[in-house]
């Protein structure tokens, strides 16, 4: 059996910012962050709008934050342990899963945190949104992805991530990586990604595709920024400007932006975990011209306590508009955040609700 150990996972500013971006509930209690422009400090999992990184300061304690002149957030109540807080048993179980060298059985995890397997399984899924087994599988894929960037061989990364066989590894990670592990390890070496950038009423839009289909649709302020984002993620991939046929693809995407009620009939290469895919499917079921809250989506996928995990899946959406995460608002109707800018989100919703004319100007 793997040794059960604890580790401090959020010791650097970059690790802490990653936790804030993903609203990682496991980071709660390990640090707090303050927003200079508002003077408020929060838990890492706070559902408030994501601040700009340049405006964020990190603190080891609430007292440290308050000593710096920050006041406690009213939404996440960082100084309390209210009813919405993740139970300590679940947090400890998540750490055990992440720190273990080998997969831990449900019975082992339950015993380690003082629950019966049945009640532990229910508690974990209630607050995390997936079963312990699914959570462990997702973390194993994440470890494998990170290992591919630093290990000398795919086999070593596979072993370190806890995969017992190459067949099991390739079966598990294919849809998440969107390419063979060896290609991913080499920064996309051997992978051809077609790319096209076009101007639209939301600025600039980029469409990128692997041989499977469209893998990324993103908005940006300049074509250069969009191309740089793709080449940073896959520095060794062969990125080709799309030919005439592919230019037709981006024309269809731009047309879809103009008339969002029409189905985009193009192949998609949607890369994500099982939970993310479940959320993204629910987003695609939201009718044009309407919105839903994170809480509603959590209910629709049958995991009402997984609100924060739903928010994380929305933030990880690789296909703007096609997976309409812009249709997600807070329960109070506030637009909340959007990875491509709240103003773009507002314009998209106005267009879909008929509040803009076809040229994108207010009617």
Name of the CATH class of the largest domain: Mainly Alpha
Helical/strand content category: alpha/beta
Name the shape in a single word: globular
User: Can you list the strand order of the major beta sheet?
Assistant: 3-1-2-4
CATH superfamily of the largest domain: Homeodomain-like
Helix fraction, binned, reads 40-55%
Major β-sheet profile: 4 strands, mixed
Radius of gyration: 21 Å
SSE run: HEEEHEHHHHHHHEEEHEHHEHHEH
Describe the structure.
- This protein has 363 residues and is an alpha/beta fold.
- It folds into four domains: 13-72, DNA Methylphosphotriester Repair Domain (3-Layer(aba) Sandwich); 88-185, Orthogonal Bundle (Arc Repressor Mutant, subunit A), CATH 1.10.10.60; 192-258, Methylated DNA-protein cysteine methyltransferase domain (Double Stranded RNA Binding Domain, 2-Layer Sandwich), CATH 3.30.160; 274-352, Orthogonal Bundle (Arc Repressor Mutant, subunit A), CATH 1.10.10.10.
- Helix content is 43%, strand content 12%.
- The chain contains 15 helices and ten strands.
- Strands 3-1-2-4 form a four-stranded mixed sheet. Strands 7-6-5-8 form a four-stranded mixed sheet, sandwiched between helices. A two-stranded parallel sheet has the order 9-10.
- Helix 4 (106-113) packs across helix 5 (117-128) and helix 12 (274-284) crosses helix 14 (307-315).
- The N and C termini lie far apart (66 Å).
Short recap of the structure:
With 363 residues, the chain is of the alpha/beta class. The protein has helices spanning 13-21, 62-67, 88-99, 106-113, 117-128, 132-150, 154-161, 166-177, 181-185, 223-233, 244-258, 274-284, 294-300, 307-315, 342-352; strands spanning 32-35, 40-42, 56-59, 71-72, 192-200, 203-209, 214-220, 238-241, 292-293, 328-329. The strands form three sheets. The protein has a four-stranded mixed sheet. It has a four-stranded mixed sheet with strand order 7-6-5-8, sandwiched between helices. It has a two-stranded parallel sheet with strand order 9-10.
């Amino acid at each position: 059996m793997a040794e059960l150990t604890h580790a401090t996972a959020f010791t650097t500013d970059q690790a802490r910012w990653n936790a804030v971006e993903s609203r990682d509930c496991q980071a709660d209690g390990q640090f707090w962050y303050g927003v200079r422009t508002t003077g408020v400090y929060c838990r890492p999992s706070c559902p408030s709008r994501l601040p700009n990184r340049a405006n964020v300061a990190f603190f080891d304690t609430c007292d440290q934050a308050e000593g710096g002149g920050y006041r406690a957030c009213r939404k996440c109540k960082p100084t309390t342990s209210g009813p919405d807080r993740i139970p300590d048993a679940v947090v400890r179980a998540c750490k055990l899963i992440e720190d273990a060298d080998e997969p831990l059985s449900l019975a082992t995890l339950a015993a380690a945190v003082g629950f019966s397997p049945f009640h532990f399984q229910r508690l974990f899924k209630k607050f995390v949104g997936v079963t312990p087994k699914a959570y462990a599988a997702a973390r194993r894929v994440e470890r494998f992805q990170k290992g591919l960037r630093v290990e000398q061989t795919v086999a070593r990364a596979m072993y370190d991530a806890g995969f017992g066989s190459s067949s099991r590894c390739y079966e598990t990670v294919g849809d998440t990586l969107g390419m063979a592990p060896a290609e991913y390890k080499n920064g996309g070496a051997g992978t051809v990604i077609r790319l096209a950038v076009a101007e639209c009423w939301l600025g600039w839009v980029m469409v990128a595709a692997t041989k499977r289909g469209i893998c990324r649709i993103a908005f940006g302020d300049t074509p250069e920024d969009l191309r740089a984002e793709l080449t940073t993620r896959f520095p060794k991939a062969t990125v080709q400007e799309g030919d005439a046929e592919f230019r037709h693809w981006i024309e269809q995407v731009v047309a879809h932006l103009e008339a969002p009620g029409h189905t985009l009939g193009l192949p998609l290469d949607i890369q994500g975990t099982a939970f993310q895919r479940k959320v993204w499917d629910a987003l695609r079921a939201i009718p044009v011209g309407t919105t839903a809250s994170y809480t509603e989506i959590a209910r629709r996928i049958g995991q009402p306590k997984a609100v924060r995990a739903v928010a994380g899946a929305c933030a990880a959406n690789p296909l703007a508009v096609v997976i309409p995460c812009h249709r997600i608002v807070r329960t109070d109707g506030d637009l909340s955040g959007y990875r491509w800018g709240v103003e773009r989100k507002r314009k998209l919703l106005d267009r879909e609700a008929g509040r803009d004319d076809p040229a994108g100007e207010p009617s």
